[in-house]
Recover the amino acids of this structure.
């Protein structure tokens, strides 16, 4: 059994974490029954969006427990080894380690600290470099708003707001579905902080996207923007675009409205 040392809990044995030791430990947790469930749930068959992905059969709380044990001491330089793993859960572990490290550097006290700004920028740069390794919707959704979305709201030495918009535009215009989804789902964080502009911009960019996973993402982020910022802004967007929106997008966007209002908006959709 492999034990990781944390400051919060005494372990039987201290082993400094490395990417290889994390992978070795996670491989001991393999569960064939759960693996079979996951390969179906995440559409790994031929021609499906997760084609060829491989799973150990770990549940997310198991992966989170590994992250909790190693994130503080695992060097950022070890994370790419996790991101390049064949195993879905190991890649998730790498992404969540990055989330943990970013959030430690993004507190109000450290928002303008030069060393913290530099540290956050390194994490964002790595996240973008390995973005295509977040190659399923859960990997994107559990990480992008907490890293890239939060970065949009914080000081950075990488560039100003124009630069940040260019970064998201490149993701939105990518040929990779997962990078496109990143450009949309990262706006969850900006909406949480009261800024609707990012959500509205990329909802328009992806309004006619052909993939169901983007229909859901756009509608979900519009719903969150309405809930967190302004339902009137959501209604304004719907008045402009409901007739051209995919019905899945519209259903997700209006989910928190009354039955009567939902019926009204669905009747305006031609899709």
């Amino acid at each position: 059994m492999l034990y990781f040392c944390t400051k919060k809990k005494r372990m039987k044995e201290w082993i400094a974490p490395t990417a290889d030791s994390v992978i070795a430990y996670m491989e001991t947790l393999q569960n064939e029954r759960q693996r079979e469930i996951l390969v179906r749930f995440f559409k790994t068959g031929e021609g499906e969006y997760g084609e060829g992905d491989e799973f150990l059969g770990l549940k997310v709380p198991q992966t989170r427990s590994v992250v909790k044990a190693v994130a503080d001491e695992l060097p950022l330089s070890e994370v790419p080894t996790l991101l390049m793993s064949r195993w879905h859960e190991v890649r998730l572990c790498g992404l969540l380690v990055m989330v943990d490290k970013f959030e430690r550097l993004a507190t109000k006290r450290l928002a303008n600290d030069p060393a913290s700004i530099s540290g956050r920028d390194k994490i964002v740069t790595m996240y973008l470099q390995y973005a295509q390794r977040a190659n399923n919707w859960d990997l994107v959704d559990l990480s992008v708003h907490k890293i890239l979305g939060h970065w949009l709201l914080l000081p950075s030495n990488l560039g100003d707001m124009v630069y940040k918009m260019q970064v998201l535009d490149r993701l939105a215009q990518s040929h990779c579905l997962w990078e496109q989804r990143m450009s949309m789902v990262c706006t969850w964080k900006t909406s949480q902080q009261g800024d609707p502009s990012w959500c509205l911009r990329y909802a328009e960019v992806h309004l006619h996207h052909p993939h169901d996973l983007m229909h859901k993402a756009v509608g979900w982020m519009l719903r969150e923007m309405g809930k967190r910022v302004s339902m009137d802004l959501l209604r304004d967007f719907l008045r402009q675009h409901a007739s051209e929106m995919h019905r899945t997008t519209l259903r997700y966007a209006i989910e928190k409205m009354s039955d009567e209002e939902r019926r009204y908006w669905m009747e305006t959709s031609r899709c």
Observations:
- The chain is about 60% helix and 0% strand.
- The mean pLDDT is 94.
